[in-house]
Amino acid sequence: MTKSTPQSRKDMRARTKLVHAGRDPSEQFGFVNTPIYRGSTVLQPTMAELEARHTKRFTYGTHGTPTTEALERAWSEVAGAAGTVLTPSGLAAISVALLAALKAGDHLLVTDSAYQPTRTFCNGFLSRMGIETTYYDPLIGAGIEALMRPNTKAVLVEAPGSQSFEIQDIPAIAEVAHRHDACVVMDNTWATPLFFPPHERGVDLAVEAGTKYLSGHSDLLLGLVSANEQWIKPLRQTFNYFAMCAGPEDVFLALRGLRSMDLRLREAERQGLALARWLSQRPEVSRVLHPALPDDPGHAIWKRDFSGSSGLFSVILKPASKAAIAALLDGLELFGLGYSWGGYESLVIPFDCRAYRTATVWNPEGPALRFSVGLEDIEDLKADLDKGFARLRAQG
């Protein structure tokens, strides 16, 4: 049997890469999957080889194992990156990426639509380190030029926004940032590299919460940061400072999830769009925030830069009381009330961005809900929500 290689797979489609990348059955006696390697100590046969540890493939558990290396290689291939590091969570991945690009006295630009824990890290930890953060309108595009300073060393983008789903013009922002020698960091969890190739679009460090679609089963915590050639060395160096290692079982589960990720993500896209369209016709719904819908304000940029959408989107309801929203949500049978997303089960949460937006005004006409659409039958999901809307109306 002739084995494919990263080079021979270069022009193959993502679905094929996901199946074959990062594994070599000949290294594990023919078994298909890379096993779980648990361990700290790596023994060397001689003193000379012990002292030559910088030339060795594996030297200590915090520096990597065959299990972590398999996922790093696979993700780098899928993302079109020079290298990848793995962390224990998505937030840890964002933290490592930002710390790789910044030092005391630097200035950071962050989209106002960013994942809220990212803001907490910037306002708390980075502020303590003497790094100033300025939040900007996610729709600013090339206008970000006006916010660049001599000490602006990184720009963080996220598309679409974590809850409000604005689509950013990543190539335009990256062009400006690079002219000012600033690193572009992107949270690409919503689209994954399958639907948005970050490094092709000008992103230097691309962050992914593997907890979501890579896992697909709501049973692990994992973060990934992929880097281009310019940034892989400082990323790896920063990662080594912290030894912020992902757990071996989580990495193994992520490798297993990787193989079916394309199929699950495309089904999530189909399910999400079907429910979004259905919700857009509901009398209780004012508007749906989903960039793949033609009437969404960010649709043109999404269509230009993205090749698909996931199962996560938001809706703005028409004015309703808190009691009515509770009646809708509390009685749902198939939609769990919980944070995170990207698993096989459907989720919904209420949210309000007003408490933390600083560069833009979030003032929706009614309550907001964020949906993560799972793999249940779409007609059953509609029926569950239909009963929920009846309870909402009954509250007046």
Describe the protein.
The protein is of the alpha/beta class and 396 residues long. It has 13 helices and 11 strands. The protein has helices at residues 14-20, 47-51, 66-79, 90-101, 116-128, 170-179, 192-195, 232-242, 248-259, 261-280, 299-305, 322-330, 378-394; strands spanning 83-87, 107-111, 132-136, 152-158, 183-187, 205-209, 223-227, 285-289, 312-317, 347-351, 368-372. The strands form 2 sheets. A 7-stranded mixed sheet has the order 1-7-6-5-4-2-3, with helices on both faces. Strands 8-9-11-10 form a 4-stranded antiparallel sheet, with helices on one face. Strand 5, helix 7 (192-195) and strand 6 (205-209) form a beta-alpha-beta unit. Helix 1 (14-20) packs antiparallel against helix 3 (66-79) and helix 4 (90-101) packs across helix 5. The longest helix has 20 residues, at 261-280. The protein is globular, with a radius of gyration of 22 Å. It starts with 13 loop residues before the first helix and ends with a helix.
